[in-house]
Write a structure and sequence with these properties.
258 residues, 4-stranded antiparallel beta sheet, 10 helices, 39% helix, globular
Length: 258
């Protein structure tokens, strides 16, 4: 069960503070209880995949982590700081340490690729990053293999290219933690595999910690150190891909064999 696996995970990283610590997290929208008693710890360098049915609360979870949605109760610490106690400036400073890859890529249609990548650098001038704007933009594009798109508009890019540019923009501030919301949704299997490999390569290069929200079982198999199965508002089960695909629980078994 989840509690047993959490204990095992804690033993492996004795002496380390978790990058994210979530305890008894609660969030509801009217009568719709999304998170009822969610518990999870994530440690430096881990790729943790969160899976579950559509509309069950996975995206709300990461929006709570980044401070876009306020929980109704429970503990939520990021980098050792209680999110609920941060003022606006402190929260903004923390977000410079977090990359958020939106499901839709969330590029500004009226801006070129260069301008889209420059946007977070201009917005977060307080964060010190070595290099000129041009150098940082070109490095980010090199990381995702799209150097030749620098002056194109988002409308001129394929879906897979937009996903790559979205990843490049999320990593341009050199974050320590990256939150991916359905990074392969809407992509063909070959492009999905390319995005999965890209995420893994960039994690190795920048030593990031990541939460990946996905329905993509291939991505989960390839990218996850741990998988957390969200159901009925709790971390219902967690473990490795191999552990979960052999789990005889009907809810888990149905998800991985459908």
């Amino acid at each position: 069960m989840a509690t047993e696996l959490n204990s095992a995970a804690d033993q492996k990283v004795t002496g380390k503070e978790p990058v994210i610590e979530i305890g008894h997290l609660k969030k509801a929208f009217g009568d719709n209880v999304v998170l009822s008693d969610f518990n999870l710890k994530i440690y430096e360098g881990e790729n943790v995949v969160v899976m579950g049915k559509s509309g069950i609360g996975k995206t709300i979870l990461i929006k709570c982590i980044i401070g876009l949605v306020k929980p109704d109760g429970g503990l939520l610490k990021v980098f050792g700081k209680d999110i609920s106690k941060l003022n606006h400036q402190e929260l903004d400073d923390m977000r410079t340490r977090i990359g958020f890859v939106f499901q839709s890529s969330a590029l500004y249609d009226s801006m070129t690729v260069r301008q889209n990548l420059e946007f977070p650098l201009r917005r977060h001038r307080r964060k010190k990053i070595t290099g000129t704007l041009d150098e940082l933009v070109r490095e980010a594009l090199h990381n995702v293999g799209l150097e030749n798109t620098i002056d194109l508009m988002p409308s001129e890019l394929s879906g897979g290219m937009r996903k790559r540019i979205g990843i490049a923009r999320s990593l341009i501030l050199k974050p320590e933690l990256v939150l991916y919301d359905e990074p392969t949704t809407g992509l063909d299997p070959i492009t999905s595999e390319e995005i999965t490999r890209l995420i893994m390569d960039l994690q190795q290069k920048y030593k990031t910690t990541a939460i990946i929200i996905t329905h993509d079982t291939v991505m989960a198999r390839e990218a996850a150190n741990r998988i957390v199965f969200l159901w009925k508002g709790i971390a219902y089960k967690e473990g490795t891909y191999d552990e979960l695909i052999h789990d005889q629980d009907s809810e888990i078994k149905h998800f991985f064999t459908r």
